Amino acid sequence: MTHTRTSARQPGRALIVALTLAGVVAVPASVSAMDYAPAGAAPKAAAEAPKAADAPKAQEPPPAPVSSGDPQTPYTRVAHFYAAYVDVSSDPGSDAAATALRAFYLTPAAQKRLADWERRNEADGVLRAQNSPTAWRVTPEGSGMGTTWSTVRLTWGEGKDRTYTYLKVTTELESGKISDISEKY
Hints:
Layout: H1 11-30, H2 74-89, H3 95-105, H4 108-121, E1 135-144, E2 147-156, E3 163-172, E4 178-183
Antiparallel strand pairs: 1-2, 2-3, 3-4
Helix pairs in contact: 2-3
């Protein structure tokens, strides 16, 4: 399946930039006039400083999404891998970084199977596509017999044109490394 990338960057990055700028704009409204007295000038008396009620109200930005995780948790490691891999796969000339990520997060056997799959399919074996997704999500599925499974949902496109693909990712509990990536459906 070939997917076409419609955006060079993830839409979440624009939200982070907007929230950061909103926080910077809100700061001057909350600083007192005494903090902005010219050098060498006497600070304004409290009576001369604008009252809090007179000061323009800065709108509180919505809270930024919070990400956290435990690197010992297999599905968190899968999430870390896909977060980094999607970032480097969307930047041209990042083959060395993608190879380093594979070496760190995947077992040697999984790397070999992916290389074989890529030769046969002429696509990226980690993403199972020729392009980069616009988003990803990892959901833990279960574990047993020394392994654990996660479902990775890759989002392609934006808005009403979004489509999804699902991958089954197997992780070895002992090493914490990904031992297999396959299409789930």
